[in-house]
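Notes, Module 5: Reading structure tokens.

Key idea: the token line is not a picture. It is a compressed description, and you learn to read it the same way you learned to read a sequence, by spotting repeated patterns. We will look at two proteins. The first is printed below with its tokens.
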Amino acid sequence: MRIFGRVRQRPSTDWRLATNRAFSLIDDGRYEDAGELLTRAADLEPWLSESWFNLALLHKFRHDWEQARAAGLRAVALLEKDAGAPDWWNVGIAATALQDWPLARRAWQAYGLRVPGSGGGWGHRSGPGGSGGASLSASDEPLGMDLGGAAVRLSPDGEAEVVWGRRLDPARIEVLNIPLPSSGRRWGEVVLHDGAPRGERTMTAPGGGGVAGVGAGRTSVYPVFDEIELWAPSSVPTWVVLIEAATQADRDALEQLAADAGYAAEDWSSSVRLLCRACSESRMPSEEGDGLALHDPHDHSVPGHPGPLGHTTAGGLWSPERECGIAAPGSLVRGLLDSWVADSPDSRDWRDLEEVC
């Protein structure tokens, strides 16, 4: 086979040595030194798609998205068979990071995914008054693929935390849990995530349903993706508060009240557990466990924390004092808590409200 007039051969020994050494340096976090070696490898074998794939991968690790896009496009241009190639997935991530929606659509389609709104039609964006304005190609609009639920591991290289979210497209997840403050993330934020899952969560819906996308009594498996970086921040702060809830119904009422206001409350006392790294990266049931590890990472039990899952305590006993996270504006949070107490003052109370993220 000839590529650009050159007979394609196996990579040279120098190429393999430089590439292997580069990935050893990447494992040690020495990205600059690895970049020099991978650039040298690409100079040695510029006809080889792997040369540019490896450079695109390095730039992804460095979050240098312009370079990742450029190297990725050179990689896919040299592919013999492009359908399903991971080179296209890396191009899709880089394009999503850069909000290059036409390229993102092209990448996901080339990988083999069905992408809505890719028929080449034209959309119409109205002006402030609802009429007039510029016409935009549908391919220039952000993707909205709605791929269902999944979990994402925030801060995977630090104090990792697995939260549930809604997949907007193959590279973005909207966070539905209220992350702990140690993650530096907030409810409602959108994070860019990697393509290969690291771990799974299984969940069985209760007899009455209550979990979106899971039929009553059915067990579903959800992938856990690693966060790459924050894609869209949230302006909604995170608060921690100690509540007194005489019953689970009292606690559920606070969560429902926050949801009705367009925000969120989450009983961290029951929805968060600690797992060792090995367990976190394996297939784990999404339910409260009583075997707590002493390290790494936090794991939220329920997608979006709907319904009764994750609300039991060890031995089935209810403890009225709960530590809750609340995602709501400062102008609303105290009024929300006061309204919750006013609905049943004999069984509810709160104290020690603090903004933590």
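Here is the second protein, with the sequence above and the tokens below, as before.
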Amino acid sequence: MLVADIIAALPLERALPEPLFRQLYAAMKAAILDGTLAPGTQLPPTRAFCALLSVSRQTVLNAYALLAAEGYLDGAVGRGTFVSRAVPVPKAAAAATGLLRPLSARGQDVVAAMQQVAFHRSALRAFRVGMPRIDHFPFDVWNRLEARRWRRPDHQFGYSDPAGFLPLRELLCVYLQASRGVRCTPQQIVITSGSQQALFLLSTILLSPGDAAWMESPGYRGASGPLRASGARVFPVPVDGEGLDVAYGVAHCPQAKLAYVTPSHQMPLGVSMSLARRLSLLDWAARNKAWVVEDDYDSEYRYAGAPLASLQSLDRAGCVIYVGTLSKVLFPGLRLGYMVAPPALADALVQAKAVADRHTAIVPQMALADFIAEGHFARHIRRTRDSNAERRDVLLRALAQELDDQLACGPADSGLELCAYFRGAHDEDSVSRAGIERGIELRPLGHYADPDAGPACATPAGLLLGFAAIKPDEIGHGVRVLGQLLRGR
């Protein structure tokens, strides 16, 4: 193709707000880099160039100047303008992705680690799990608190403490001591970008590749992902009516360096770890110098009595790291969580946090501190707990009326979801797929089972049904659809 034809074909859009010389610069740069304008090619004189594209000479001169400054063009008065010979000749693109530079082994582990985690990709519908009631949140109050902070910027709007906004950590310390019995100082608290970041940081700095880690099975897949990404060997430990079977873990994998547990409200079965199991777990961790990660993801929502005391409150050996999230209490988009570390570990976690993202966004932390200090946090929890309890009752009544012969409900005294076991022979995955086709979400309990777990970790077939974010009439509709599915209608 002649150079004049190449120039005439350069794409310029006169209706765009971007100046024509910037468009011309970008088009010529692309043509040079992909080899359409080869190194050493002489460009037409500027006046001829203008005629080919119907642009002003100044447009061409400005584009030439940018290209020359970046090394794409060479030229001198009286000699002409050329595509620089220093621009490398482009090689043919790889025919298949397999020829591209591969990820490192660690990179492949990180990418693969969360592939089994289900993400919400559609509009809210019954019975979505892991979702709080967002329309209950006082966004008008939150907007006012954030706006007030934006109106009064100070030195804290620069780079701040990786551990988090100190007034927020002080307020969380008081709250956790009062509500969960957590024994800590503000210096032990590290603010994170959600509990998922906390789990990733802990997996990264506490485990070496090949180290074993206990993981509840069935359990939260979002926790097993970071463990696998760190190169740890995840060892599934069964869960029964008393929580994690510590004796099984001790008998089959006593050398584990870490145990991940959800003792207050096990995910997904909803059971609480018994005192005997808690003490046994802490004894094993102390004797073996292992770590225990306590994920307390939704303990605020207990509907029968006060929230249970944390596992951390029983720890006397400094082996429990308490992980909390505000996604379930406020709203997931906030992306705020926290860790309460043993004093000896706190500084290391702060440094690890600094490596990950320097510090979590400061204005949401400030707004949350004000939200707690002014009493909005406590009021919101009380109101949301009442709302959740009402919707839980709607679900329980509907299941009892419509599906008592089909489903047996698990513990229902806390949380945002209800575990329901099939009374008859049903295939979880088939029921779940049919539910999607009929407009409802049904999460199989098998989704939470470790694929490498043996028969000891087998869980009865069933579903996890979320209710907190679902309106009562939609809960009723969802139960009726589920009944039709289970009865083959």
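Summary for the second protein:
- The longest strand covers residues 233-240.
- Confidence is low (pLDDT under 50) at residues 93-97.
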